[in-house]
Every structure is written in structure tokens, then in C-alpha cells.
Design a protein that fits this description.
Blueprint: E1 2-8, E2 15-18, E3 30-35, E4 38-51, E5 69-70, H1 73-100, E6 105-111, E7 117-123, H2 131-141, E8 144-149, H3 152-159, H4 170-173, H5 183-188, H6 213-219, E9 234-237, E10 240-248, E11 253-258, E12 263-267, E13 272-273, H7 295-301, H8 340-348
Parallel strand pairs: 7-8
Antiparallel strand pairs: 1-2, 1-4, 3-4, 3-5, 6-7, 9-10, 9-13, 10-11, 11-12
Helix pairs in contact: 1-2
Length: 369
């Protein structure tokens, strides 16, 4: 079997596997290894152990590299010198950012062990054209320059800080990689769904929600129904708060338009209403209206009323048609209907036919009923 060791290049960073060879290496030792970025100095966090056959890398993954050597006293002095250079490079880069008026926030600077490359970590809201900045930095440091844009979680990991629990951030102390955290984990743990209370320093969901999520998921009541969203509902998802645009009932997914104008597709299990309720239940279905049968009452109303002996009998008159009832008889507008005004005009000009009589008003044209 192949022997391996686990090496970490920064605190709470990802662990990489290397072949120790025949050297006697213990956890806590510093080793010089060859990486894709060049020579790096890392700390051994996993001692020598044998790699099982099932965990061996396939032909599609890179092979496990062998370490270069154990770090000597000169190598340790060089690492300390590189850390001092990183502080100076940080100040120089900030000045150049101000000169070029770039909207970017510089976070950290890392030197490789052989000073073959300098990596500048920064954050920005949008993509930035920093080609001129790279030229200036390469002219100053006379080496390869790499500017890497990171997210908010990576920023909190590099800067470090204290969380809402009063302890140092998990991502900067022991978490090697970021796990996927969903809003469903907070719901299962019966936590307040206020985004300000379940979000960390980075503005995302707390990483510690993942620690006990499996236990809570097993103990979660199976009878709790899943929240069924509707269009235009305000909901909370992992990326923030937004509005439901459309709902897919076959796949149980919903398309959310976040307040940041970003569109995401989320399953019903991973979203909650924005009203802050911890346990989401379906609204009770309205009971069907009961039809009251008034058969007996109608029968009583239809019974004949006994008339008094001396009460006069009124004649039965046909009911008048209501104004809502329309008459569908076709009206004939061609028949000659003479009015009293027309008769006066005929009598006035009867003896004088040569005088032009005033014209009668014309009947409006159109289809009338």
C-alpha cells in the first residue's frame, strides 16, 4: 500500500495528500513540497498512514506527489522573511489601487516559498479591469502577479473575527472547506428565521447550522408538512429574501427573484415564508358550505291561508313587467308617425305651397331595437 501524509499550507486551509517517501515525518513538522504554484512550505497535520486501495486516485485525477524535503532552519527563516514582505506588498498594492481609482477591497497577500509568484486576494461587487494595476505591480516586484477575487465567506476566513457566540469564527479556526448550508437546517432546529439572527459575519447562513443538522433531521417530525409557495409570496432562501415568480408543482421547485435582482431555483424544502414562523403548516381547508333544506318550511308557506268571512275579495291583476325585462319585439321605424308639431307646420303652410317650408328634423340612422 502507498504511504501518505496530510499537509496544510495555511491555517484552517484545505488538506492535501503527499507521499512522504522514506523520511521520518511526524505531525507538526514543516515540509517543502512542489505544487502547481511552485515550491510551498506547509505543515503536516496528518501523520504517515497507508492509503487504502479504494481511495487511490484514478487515471483522471492527478497522482500524489512526493515531498521535496523537510524544512530546515534556513527554510524557516525564509518563511518568516516572506511574511514580512507580504506586509510591505499589501501597503504598496493599496496605494496603487487608489492611484488607478479601482473599486476593489484588498484583503490579503501571499508569497510562495520560492517567491516565484505573489497572490493578491480582493473583493469587489462587479468585475474589474485591473490590467494596468498588474503591470505596475509586476514592474515593482519583478515577479509573477496574480489577482484573485474571492467571495464573502472566503473574505471572513482570511480576515478572521469573532462570531455571535463570542468565539473565533469556525471557518478561520478549523473548517477546511465550506459546507453547503440551507434554510431547512434552521427550520428543523427550531431557530428564529430572522435573517439577521441566523447569518454570520459574512452575511451568509451560519456554518455551525451544519454540525447537528443530521441529528435534527433524523428527529424531525415527519408529520410537518412542507411549505407550499404561491406566486408573489415573500420567502426566505439561502441567498437572502425575495419574491416567488413561478412555481413548478411537478418538481416541487420555485423560481425566486431576490432583492438583489438575482434569480434562483429552490426546492420547497429549502425556502420559508418571510413572516418569521418557525413551523410552517398548511392553512386549513375551508369546510364546504352546508345546504340547508327548507323543504318543510316551503311546504308550510305553500299551504292556503284561511280567509276571514267578511274580507272582500280583490280582483286579480296581472303582474307588471319589471324594468329589467326587455322586449325583444322588432321596432318598425319606417311607419309614418305624425306628431303634433308636424301637424301645425302643415296647417300653417297649407295655402302657400310655393314657400319653402322648414325642413323636418331627420330621424337618426342606425340599428335600433
Amino acid at each position: 500500500m502507498q504511504k501518505i501524509i496530510g499537509v496544510r499550507f495555511r491555517k484552517a486551509g484545505k488538506i492535501y495528500l503527499f507521499d512522504p517517501g522514506d523520511d521520518d515525518i511526524n505531525p507538526g513538522d514543516l515540509v517543502i513540497v512542489d505544487t502547481s504554484r511552485g515550491l510551498e512550505c506547509g505543515e503536516v497535520v496528518i501523520g504517515v498512514r497507508e492509503l487504502p486501495e479504494a481511495e487511490k486516485p484514478s487515471r483522471y485525477t492527478p497522482l500524489i506527489r512526493r515531498i521535496h524535503r523537510k524544512a530546515t532552519r534556513a527554510d524557516r527563516a525564509r518563511v518568516a522573511d516572506n511574511k514580512q514582505r507580504e506586509i510591505e506588498a499589501f501597503e504598496i498594492c493599496k496605494e496603487k489601487i487608489r492611484e488607478h481609482q479601482l473599486k476593489m477591497n484588498l484583503i490579503n497577500v501571499r508569497y510562495t516559498f520560492d517567491v516565484n509568484k505573489i497572490i493578491f486576494y480582493f473583493t469587489a461587487e462587479y468585475r474589474i479591469d485591473f490590467r494596468e494595476l498588474v503591470r505596475d505591480l509586476a514592474y515593482i516586484f519583478k515577479t509573477r502577479i496574480e489577482l484573485r477575487q474571492v467571495g464573502t465567506r472566503e473574505e471572513a476566513k482570511l480576515i478572521d473575527g469573532v462570531g455571535c457566540c463570542g468565539r473565533k469564527l469556525c471557518c478561520s479556526t478549523f473548517l477546511g472547506d465550506f459546507a453547503q448550508v440551507s434554510i431547512r437546517m434552521a427550520k428543523e432546529q427550531n431557530l428564529s428565521l430572522n435573517p439577521t439572527k441566523i447569518s454570520g459575519v459574512c452575511g451568509r447562513l451560519l456554518c455551525c447550522l451544519k454540525f447537528e443538522s443530521e441529528y435534527y433531521h433524523e428527529c424531525y417530525l415527519a408529520n410537518n408538512p412542507v411549505y407550499e409557495p404561491h406566486q408573489n409570496d415573500r420567502v426566505i432562501v439561502d441567498d437572502g429574501e425575495g419574491r416567488v415568480i413561478s412555481v413548478n408543482f411537478t418538481r416541487n421547485t420555485a423560481t425566486i427573484l431576490l432583492d438583489t435582482n438575482k434569480t434562483v431555483i429552490v426546492r420547497w424544502e429549502d425556502l420559508l415564508p418571510a413572516d418569521g414562523e418557525t413551523i410552517v403548516k398548511f392553512k386549513p381547508e375551508p369546510e364546504p358550505e352546508k345546504i340547508i333544506e327548507d323543504y318543510e318550511q316551503t311546504q308550510e308557506d305553500s299551504l292556503p291561508i284561511e280567509e276571514e268571512e267578511n274580507q272582500p275579495i280583490e280582483p286579480i291583476t296581472p303582474p307588471k313587467p319589471s324594468p329589467q325585462e326587455k322586449s325583444f319585439e322588432r321596432k318598425n321605424f319606417n311607419q309614418n308617425k305624425s306628431t303634433s308639431k308636424d301637424n301645425k307646420l302643415d296647417d300653417e303652410y297649407k295655402d302657400r305651397p310655393w314657400i319653402n317650408r322648414p325642413r323636418k328634423p331627420r330621424r337618426p340612422r342606425g340599428k335600433f331595437r
